[in-house]
Automatic annotation (TrEMBL):
GO MF entries: ATP binding; ATP hydrolysis activity; calmodulin binding; metal ion binding; P-type calcium transporter activity
Region (Disordered): 1-25
Descriptive protein name: Calcium-transporting ATPase
Its EC number(s): 7.2.2.10
Provenance organism: Brassica campestris (Field mustard)
Main location: membrane
Role description: Catalyzes the hydrolysis of ATP coupled with the transport of calcium.
Domain Cation-transporting P-type ATPase N-terminal span(s) in chain numbering: 140-211
Domain of life: Eukaryota
Protein keywords: ATP-binding, Calcium, Calcium transport, Calmodulin-binding, Ion transport, Magnesium, Membrane, Metal-binding, Nucleotide-binding, Translocase, Transmembrane, Transmembrane helix, Transport
Name of a matching Pfam family: Cation_ATPase_N
Claim: Acetylation is one of the keywords in the record: no
Amino acid sequence: MSGPFKNSPRGEDKDVEAGTSTFTDYEYEDSPFDITTTKNAPVERLRRWRQAALVLNASRRFRYTLDLKREEDKKQMLRKMRAHAQAIRAAHLFKAAASRVNGITSSPPTPGGGDFGIGQEQIVSISRDQNIGSLQELGGVKGLSCLLKTNLDKGIHGDDDDISKRKSAFGSNTYPQKKGRSFWRFVWEASQDLTLIILIVAAAASLALGIKTEGIEKGWYDGISIAFAVLLVIVVTATSDYRQSLQFQNLNEEKRNIHIEVTRGGRRVEISIYDIVVPADGVLVAGHSLAVDESSMTGESKIVHKNSTKNPFLMSGCKVADGHGTMLVTGVGVNTEWGLLMASVSEDNGGETPLQVRLNGVATFIGIVGLTVAGVVLFVLVVRYFTGHTKDANGAPQFVGGKTKFDHVLDDLVKIITVAVTIVVVAVPEGLPLAVTLTLAYSMRKMMADKALVRRLSACETMGSATTICSDKTGTLTLNEMTVVECYAGFQKMDPPDSSSKLPPAFTCKLVEGIAHNTTGSVFLSESGEIQVSGSPTERAILNWAIKLGMNFDALRSESSAIHFFPFNSEQKRGGVAVKSYSNKVLIQFQPDSSVHVHWKGAAEIVLGSCTHYMDENESLVGMSGEKMGELKNDINDMAARSLRCVAIAFRTLEADKIPTDKEQLSRWVLPDDDLVLLAIVGIKDPCRPGVKNSVLLCQQAGVKVRMVTGDNIQTAKAIALECGILASDSDASEPNLIEGKVFRSYSEEERDRISEEISVMGRSSPNDKLLLVQSLKRRGHVVAVTGDGTNDAPALHEADIGLSMGIQGTEVAKEKSDIIILDDNFESVVKVVRWGRSVYANIQKFIQFQLTVNVAALVINVVAAISSGDVPLTAVQLLWVNLIMDTLGALALATEPPTDHLMDRDPVGRKEPLITNIMWRNLLVQAMYQVTVLLVLNFRGISILHLKSNPNPERVKNTVIFNAFVICQIFNEFNARKPDEINIFQGVLRNHLFVGIICVTVVLQVVIVEFLGTFASTIKLDWEMWLVSIGIGSISWPLAVIGKCIPVPETPVSQYFIINRWRRNSSG
């Protein structure tokens, strides 16, 4: 579009803390760190920001970013494996063709040894090479199942002994994974920091020179002190990184642990993929309209149609695109092509996140400033030293030309360089980008407890910017506990709906036959003898209703067989089946033995539209008049208005000679869907989830619009939307607020963009309608989250900024394309994800404010002191300790703050809003100016102010007080950073045990450093008065923060002024 939309999020005011964003994309075009989304980002774009970043330790900084080289290696490996598989298949086809021409027959396969009639190598070879000839020689799928001792109807026995034998014979469904890095690997990576290496060299030089000039008794202090401080930094950093790595490993295990349905002992049970004992490659036993996307293995994007005779082989790692079927599993773990690939290529951590990239930009800018400052300090100290302005402890010049020994000069220069390098350590916030992964790892672990499994790191933070959520209805906003509560059969309302006595036997027989065959569900007896029903919630509701009508599921399916299916899909809103009977038990007067019954079931108004007759209570076929059709439509609308899902069940007869006999033609045959006879219309109740209305209201208060996109009837959608609070009242239920999918898709792109902002409910929508809505909203500037559960939802999940798949009802294709899996299919869990997403951003901002305060104060104090007096009050060891507090411990304390309700009182965070808001600038400048002022006054006038003239070591006491007060200021300021825009900084502090623990550890270590490690840290023991002075200076941070928060700040971010000026200069140029 040519410019911002009137109602788009880009033009709206934001929360004061978050800042505002009123500029379009061009202002940031020239920044390599401006990546609004890393989802499907070009490789060159990702490579560009890496090259632009100022990095001291690449192995640590880029640990949790996408390994571009490894990604390319993975693609090459996949291409090689695809080419290898294609070559093998081509060779087998050529060999088979030559054998047919020459009349050569291959010898039957040698039976395997052990407990089974076929060995692992033989079965893997047949499956991997897709050798249809060898499969046929074994007797096809039936013969193979006999060799594997598997019942095609009931599956394997599934007892412990049987599973143990199968694991022994065929292996387990796992593949070798790359071992996690050891703790020592993290120690090694932490020690690769360039500044720490320089400090180690400086420590070695200082140790050698110190021993030479002062003797071994005193000369080792400085060198060992620096080395010990560096070692402490390395160990603490490595420990933090190692713990973080373990968290990611655990989360990856959860992501890989997929649960599927299998048949064991005649019952359908849900198990982990790791518990499959004849794993994921296999051959098709039976299926209908089964279409598979094999692009992940073959590289070909076309959909492959499978059948049990000509193309029965199914490969692991591929996705079912349509239809359904049963597979006999033949290959396990590394014995599958996907297992070989996964064993060859280790999984990455999901790539970098936009916030991570932006923080690298912030770290680079701060690092450049720090390097400049360190350079200035180094230059000033060297010049002052060689001009005789640097004094020793006795007040005499440290350097006198021609008199000072070379060893002393070298030792002094090493100390000066050490201070300059240490300033770089403090100035370059190497841990800043890593704080994102720390808070993401923490958030992901906590989100698991909130029933959300994060598959893509970036989605965690992007969810905090979401401005709209396009949600499914069934199972997400509702309980997914469906029951048939109303029924119209024989043009009469049945009350109760499962009263079989009100229907004639032949009518019931026809109805239950259609229900038993036209379903993907199943009915079986549990171990305790109770009837259990599996399948989707809608299927379960209808099957349970049919059981109450007297349906014998197994008997019906044994007395007749389905010869062709039209699987239910989201586009057509219906599914059908053609059934051929073996017995006269289910035949009625309208069906001679030579006929086939075609049953249809689906959305009531769609199926009803194809009906020309209905069966009345006397088992007679009656023509469907316009008046009768109108009555039924009114009944459907009445049920829909009461939030019932309406499903119609109909049938027709077809002469057997009209059905193709050739299997190839039958597979392409289209089930007739005209001239149907209506049997029943049922109303299925699926109650709203108890807390969903409050969750929707919470989203609305947080500036996130919830839109319902459902395949249900528009009236059902309206009723549920009113119940959930998505629609406030009946007056809102009009176009375009309430719209049907077919109406929306009929508009032009410009019209869709115009009305998409106003849409709250879309009924009778197809997956493509959902995709069109997502695209329109994104063009309007929205950050869009979408929920989906079906295979056809994959394009919308992929297109959305955040794709949320359903863990219970979601297909594997939907989960694969999603960024987050909602494990309980509950909308409340989606709202919790929004809270956590906002928490990630807020925690990073807290950490930035805290770190920049330390940066500014430490740099200014050392620079001013160096330029004015030629000495720095904070030594190398002290600065390393400050860096540890600021970097690792600070990140642990602030990046793991749990989310608060306050986060949902503000608008979503804009993608391009500044990381450092005006409120943050105000807070950090107030604290930094206070710390700089007080500590510089102490540096220049501390001896007199603290009455230290009579003290034997006034300079050391003064410098120790400065160091102690500086550290205590940071401890107090850490509390301020918890609540950048709130007065009560202590709210919820005791619930964050990690924060309290880190504060306590910091205090204890500070006391130890000052009181017991004076030789190493260049400190001296302080009396209680000096401790009170230090604590008093630090404690002023709290009331000062309250006063600072009363200072108003402009709504336009500071950074925008620079952008405006730069844009004006570029425009004028």
